[in-house]
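Worked example (supplementary).
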Amino acid sequence: MSDCNDPKHRPDGNTDRRRDAILQALLLQRSGAVEHRERISHSEAAPASVGGAFLSMLPLAGPGMVEHAVQELREHLQNGSGSIDDICQSWSAVERCLCGAELEELRSQVFRRLYPEEALGTCHARHGDVALGGR
Amino acid sequence: MAIISTLFEHANFAGASSTSNSASFRYYWNRYTGSQNDLYSSMMANGGGDRGNVYAFEHIDFSGRYASLNVGGAYNTAWWSYFGDDFNDQVSSSLIVARSPVQLETEVALRAQVVPRFSSIFDAKTFGKPVSRKGDPRLYATYFPSYDRNSALLTIDQKLNVKVRIPLKIEELPVWTPWSKWDTIDIPDIDTLEKLRWSDYEATVRYDVEFFVIDGKLQAAARWLRLHVEDGLLHDRVYEDLFPQLMDAAQSVTDAFQSALALFAMGRFSDVYLLPGRPPSMNLAGENGSYDDDVTLVIVRA
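After joint prediction of all chains, the assembly is encoded as:
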């Protein structure tokens, strides 16, 4: 008894169509090749000095934490005792969480400490022009 | 050596911002995801008396085009008031590289040094074999990849052409079909077989090389081998033939770098690091470039 699933026992017309379909499947079957990767040798060196962060616009702080960080930032700014590193650290934590008048007020104070005031005020680009500068 | 930089949503330093401080790190990176991706239009950096370079990259893995700022050379503060229409709202990652005092540093543009040596080694290793280079290798810095998160590596990226001979003994090809799972097709005649006999496969090999200092001596070693073979029926066979040969060649790559670094054998060094692209001109406030224009090796004397 012939097995209808065995291609060797199928009529010729079906065999051609089947071959076409199989060849098509053959072209598709290896989609999605991946990169093969292997470590050649292990590092005996000290790790590089690296810091970094994944940033998104979503606030990362819980309730109360933004207020606390803003208060800390205000203290650094007001009494003048905050170092650039302190101000930068506090500001980095809150600058994506603020909006409106509070953002504008704190940003102008922070950037006066981080950047020379005249740099932010006098180096504007005209619309559409590339503008590179330094001081 | 702290470098501060801020990216701004709009031209002229307006809108939402993202500020970073390199603090005591050599490298400080940011990857911008979600609504911060492709958001920024202007950038400012301040060296506060220290030297550094800040890069805003097109892609999230510190690749693609970049706009850079150079501080601590001719300018202590530098800015792009507007990146320009071609690069506006394109930034997906940024990198601050805090530099050492200028009198301690030596910069080496690697492309001119590495490409001829690598090509010569590769051609010698593959002479008479059915694998050949397609053009010269690309060179770029790979920063903190997922497979080596704390490393900055020099990547040598070479496209290959591989000729694969299909054995004449094949009379049937096994194939996977949706309706009958594993099946076979007959190879109908000798002419068809002859057409199928040779097949060209494209592949890309990448060697990641690490530079480091041990006991004051500058060293380099090939750390990772990455191989990509294009899709196709013989993908696995191409990979299995090629990968061991490329792994063997890795030692030659390491030896070639060690030999080149012999120029620095008399010195004592405290650090070595990589800058993307060509050596920055510290007399300019900033530059445009692409991550694969070159790689700059910076060697710091002890």
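Two points are worth noting when inspecting this output. Residues 5 and 40 of chain A are 48 Å apart (CA to CA). Chain A touches chain B through 65 residues (CB under 8 Å).
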